[in-house]
Write the structure tokens for this entry.
Amino acid sequence: MTKKRWNKPKSDNALLGDISFIVFVVRFNYKVVEMKWPQITKAFHNFDIQKLAKLDENDEKTMEKFLRAPGMIKNKWKMQSVIINAKKCAEIQREHGSILKWIANAKKEYKKSPMLAPELRDIFRVFRGIGPMTSTWLEGLFMSDKNYVEYEM
């Protein structure tokens, strides 16, 4: 087993990148995604929320462009999820200023009143492709006092 470190994202775009990585890894091979990730990141405009949120995930030309991108994992549902999640991120930014601020406020509310505030794992479930296990993992990352989590692969 190899020990890996996952750092907390420092920007909203980086968080979308992390969420997208998780979406691509679920039910797929971690090492393949990791190897192709630089090319996938480039194809998705470095996970620029504003650029991706303007795209139509149901537009065949848009999907075809991503399918033809070098190194892309050719799974339409996963590719559409990146765009759908970018739209969700843009919505959260409009409402809260930033996604990281939204998460920090949710964390603060939970620590202040754990019986009344939603747990972080519940708020992460607003993103397509983030389920019970991955939302719990994201919660662990953001609830940690460290700027990273370590895990074994």
